[in-house]
Amino acid sequence: MTKKSFYLLLLISVLFTSCIPMKDLVYLQDKNTSSDQSAIAAVESKPYRLQVNDVMSINIKAIDQKLVSIFNASSVEGSQNSNSESGLYFDGFTVDDHGNIRMPILGEVNVIGYTLEEVRQKIEKKLLEEYFKSEANIFVTVKLAGFRYTINGEVGTTGTKTLFKDNVTILEAIANSGDITTVGNRKAVTIIRQTPTGVQMNDIDLTDVNVMKSPYYYLQPNDYIYVKPLRQKTWGTGQTGIQSIGTIITLLSLATTVYLIIKN
Known about the structure:
The chain has 7 helices and 10 strands. It has helices spanning 3-18, 65-68, 85-91, 116-130, 170-176, 231-235, 241-263; strands at 55-61, 93-94, 100-103, 107-110, 139-144, 147-153, 159-163, 184-195, 198-204, 223-229. The strands form 3 sheets. A 5-stranded mixed β-sheet has the order 7-6-10-8-9. Strand 8 (184-195) and strand 9 form a beta hairpin. The chain is elongated and about 100 Å long.
C-alpha cells in the first residue's frame, strides 16, 4: 500500500467513525421491516399511587357553596388563591412523611399508596358520613398540583419541569425540554423512578418504535430522565461529514505549517 493510499484510507476511516449516522437521530423507527408499524400501540399508563412529598389540589363543591367553602384550602385566610405553580405549592395538600395530608375540618387523611380516584372517593365518603347528606350533592375533585419531572444530560434545557397534564410521555417531556441534542444518545435514555418498593432504573431506546410498548414510555410524577452523550462528543472531530472534513483539513494544515517551520 502506498503512502498516498494509506492517508486516503485514514481520512475515510476518521470521516465515517466521527460522523453521527442518521439512524441514531431519528425517533420511533420501524426496525422490524416484517411487522406492521400501524399495529404498534402505546401501553396503557397505570394509575399513579401517591408518595411522600406529592402535592395535590383538592376542591370540594356543592349546591350551596358556602357550606363547603371552609373545607377548601383556597378559602382559608392568607391563601395565595392562585392556579400558578407557586400558588399550588402554598395552597395544595402535601403528603407528609407519615403518608397523610391535613385538610381543614377533616384533619389528617391518609393517602399514601392511594390513586387520585381512591383519594377522591375516600374524602367524599367521609364528608357524607360526618358532615353532609346526599342531598347536598357533594362534588370532589382531586388532582396532582402539576406533573413534575427532572431531566438532565444532552437536552436543550435541563432542570425540574412541570406540565399541567394527567399523563406525560417520554417524548413529550423531551420536546418540552428543547429536544435531545445532536450528540445525545437516543438509544439509551435512562429513567430513574421512585416507587413504594424502592428505586427503579431502566434504559429505553427512543429510536425504536416498540418503545411505545414500554412501561417507561408514560412517565410518572417525579421521574428523573438522563440523556447520555454519544462518543462523538468526546472525540471532538465533528458531528457531520462537513464538520469532520473541516477538522481534518485544519489538523493537516497545522501539521504542514509546523513541518515547514521546523524544516526552515
